[in-house]
Amino acid sequence: MPIVNTQEDVEKTPDEIAIGLGERIRALRLAADCTQAMVADKAGVSERSLRDLESGQGSTVQTLVRVLKALGAQDVVDAIAPRPSVSPMQLLKNKSRQRATGNR
Fold first, then answer.
1. What string of pLDDT tens digits covers the 104 residues of the chain?
2. Phi/psi at 14 (5° precision)
3. Within 10 A of 47 (CB to CB), how many other CB atoms are there?
4. Which residues neighbour 5 within 8 Å (Cβ) at sequence distance 6 or greater?
């Protein structure tokens, strides 16, 4: 899974990315036919925190995760940071040392 998909994504500022994320979270909430009060209550966050998240005005990872879980969208976390299929440490352990062979 590529981290960056398009040139447009590369050119976005962190603020633009946060605003886009907030818009997507708002769309998820509206698709679930929930008010901000309902989601905030279910997520255990304040309505202000949810409004800030939805508007891209800054939030915490904790708030993001709580809101995603309240919306039943916690699988989004796997898309953001997928688990490696092979542990990097395991790769190092499995790598056998090879000696150079040459004609002497």
1. 444 456 666 788 999 999 999 999 999 999 999 999 999 999 999 999 999 999 999 889 999 999 999 999 988 888 887 777 777 677 677 765 556 666 65
2. -55, -35
3. 14
4. none
Rounded Cα distance, 88 and 98, in Å = 19
The residue to which tokens 């150079």 are assigned: 100
Q: What is the pLDDT of residue 69?
A: 94
Please give the Cα distance from 75 to 92 (Å, whole number).
29
**What is the residue-wise DSSP string for the chain?**
--S--SHHHHH--HHHHHHHHHHHHHHHHHHTT--HHHHHHHHTS-HHHHHHHHHTS---HHHHHHHHHHTT-TTHHHHHSPPPSS-HHHHHHHPPP-------
Cα separation, 86 vs 76, in Å, equals: 21
- Give pLDDT, residue 2: 45
